[in-house]
Write a structure and sequence with these properties.
The protein is an all-alpha fold. The chain is built from 5 helices and no strands. 21% of the residues are buried.
Length: 177
């Protein structure tokens, strides 16, 4: 962050960084559990000759959390796939305006995703995941969280960028020149 940036932005960015780190920690723990359960699957199948059937359903659930939380962190850390050649070849003002538009577009997408997933979450509460005996909503919760996090991360980056643009302060987010 630039030194002339308002203090509230730096504090908010620090909170967002902590939230992003928490998401990555949860996704990393889910990955460790995923690997351990597949180890148990192999051991159960070939050593005990009793395949644990719940592993596949747990793996599907964990992959949802790993993917969606990782995607939200990618939005926050600005490491998500993007093609910036065209945008960067334009002048600074046009490029900054496009970055602002992209942040707004991502925030709107996150909000729509979250709202749609709330309906799925509510709908799936009475349906149980086979073998795990937990509501299907736990699988949908990962997408709901992702939508909310994308909305927060991209929406606040939009606010930061717009604030800096109106105050004439340069704003350089992670991975940007």
């Amino acid at each position: 962050m630039h030194q002339m940036m308002p203090r509230w932005m730096a504090r908010t960015e620090s909170v967002l960084d902590s939230l992003s780190t928490l998401c990555m920690l949860i996704a990393s723990c889910a990955l460790v559990v995923l690997i351990a359960t597949f180890g148990w699957l192999v051991f159960g199948r070939y050593v005990l000759n009793a395949t644990p059937t719940w592993v596949e359903q747990l793996a599907l659930l964990l992959v949802c959390y790993i993917t969606y939380l990782g995607e939200a962190v990618g939005i926050h850390e600005n490491t998500h796939l993007g093609v910036s050649l065209f945008r960067d070849s334009l002048g600074a003002k046009v490029s900054d305006s496009l970055k602002l538009f992209i942040d707004a577009l991502l925030a709107v997408f996150g909000l729509i995703m979250m709202i749609a997933c709330i309906e799925l979450f509510n709908f799936g509460w009475d349906t149980m995941l086979p073998m795990l005996d937990i509501p299907e909503s736990f699988r949908t919760l990962s997408a709901l969280l992702c939508g909310g996090l994308v909305f927060i991360f991209a929406g606040l980056r939009f606010v930061f960028r717009a604030t800096c643009m109106t105050q004439g302060i340069p704003y350089h987010f992670r991975g940007e020149e």
